[in-house]
Amino acid sequence: MEPQTPSAQDERTRGSAGHPLVGPRDPAPPERPFPPVHDSAWLFTGDDGLRCGWSALLFVALYYLLLFVLDIVAITIYPHLADNIFSPVQVLISESVPLTAILIAGSVMARIEQRRLADYNLADTRIARHFFTGLFSGFATLSLLVAVLALGGWLHFSAASLQAGPAFKYGILWAGAFLLVGLFEEGSFRCYLLSTLTRGIHFWWSLAIVAVVCLLLVASSNPNGSGGVFLIAALGVVPCGLVHRSRLPSSSFWQAAWATSTTFAYFHTNNNGENSIGIFAAGLVGFVFCVSVRVTGSAWWAIGCHTAWDWSETFFYGTPDSGLVAPGHLLTTAPVGNTLWSGGTDGPEGSLIAVPVILLLLLALLLIGRSRGMRSAHASLRDLPEHLSA
């Protein structure tokens, strides 16, 4: 007998395994994943490693721990440091302590985050150009403010208080002292904190930081010029909220700029002789320095501008600076009239006129910038109306 050939029907009933009457094999059921294991690592790490909030908190904790230890060492070596005398030598020594603390803390954080210290807004192919442009900008801006106060009759000049030799010596000493001030304050706020928070902060976390700063002021027994902190905090709410809503790629930078500028203003309430306008001016200058990082790509312009502003105010023009008049100043000046316009013991930055002058500095910074950072900032600002309308 001839072997029978299976029919088409038989083939259909064999199924994919070739066995009759089984029918087509159902597709294999998807593999059931194992029950998810609870993992809290996401609370601490993200795509960029340690989350920016934890990084900032750890940096601040390391800084204050190191500051406590280094203060003890410094006072042991130089007991006069505890006298709080406002002199160039005293400032040179006292400012070297917190500067050393942030350098060590920043180096530790760089090791933890597998970064370089220069990655915190210090890497720049044109450091000298940006630094010296910042020096010129700081001196020119403070000089403009002093000129307006003098022309308005709110600041009176007297004869120079130093001869050529002592003037040169004090000028160098104060320049070194305020360079350390600029390196410390910009290194803290515009280098590590601004760079780190820009990695991932959003509007609600920035708002939380600002709220905590304001609560600290409320709880403080004697805050100097606290109204300036509240004002700089309030002015950032709507713009930062709109930027957050627009989902601009640069949103985290502006949130970080708001948080660090408000904290920078709060940092200055520890100074005696501050008024609300002076504290607001400090926060506004802090924001300008944040923008300079966006424009130039690094904090070196801000470091130069900060150094020259303080040097001009304290040494060159001899004006009050947060309630203190420095020994060894070149010119002699005195505030006259209503403190709203003269600044009083706060100095020129405590005058209401300081606000439009600082805004002119911001405008000049945007106009003269030619770096890629400036083009990116302008592109973000041009796109803002389109994003908001969407």
Task: Give the fraction of residues assigned to helices.
Answer: 55-70%
- Overall strand count: 4
Main sheet attributes: strand count, strand direction, barrel closure: 2 strands, antiparallel
Distance between the termini: 81 Å
Which outline best applies?
globular
Q: Order of strands across the biggest sheet?
A: 1-2
Computed over alpha carbons, the radius of gyration is: 30 Å
Unreliable segments of 5+ consecutive residues: 1-26, 34-38
Percent of residues in beta strands: under 5%
Structural class: mainly alpha
Number of helices: 14
Average of pLDDT: 84
H/E topology pattern: HEEHHHEHHHHHHHEHHH
Summarize the structure in words.
By secondary structure, the chain is mostly helical. Helices cover 63% and strands 3% of the residues. α5 (164-198) runs antiparallel to α11. The termini are far apart.
